[in-house]
Prior knowledge:
Layout: E1 17-22, E2 25-30, H1 31-39, H2 42-54, H3 64-78, H4 80-88
Amino acid sequence: MNCVLCEEEVEEQDMSAWPIHTEYGQRQAHRQCMLRSSIGGIGHLIAHQFWCNEMGDPDAGLTYRQSALMVQRWVEVVGIEDAVTRSVTPPNED
């Protein structure tokens, strides 16, 4: 079965998958993809002005899944509080 968000395979043994109820029935999503869908892609977190406003690509040129994996790592290093703050009010970049 594929992740409803990134469309990449969710392994049967992948304990980080979350069920999502859709109009087509229950589907699975990677935990990392759920995090990325909540707080934004890696481009949004590291350089909002450039990646979101100028390039129109919150995933910084990466696939949704690649971005999601980087977002998870970014949160592990920087912290969820900073990630949520950036998602609500992107940093002012000159």
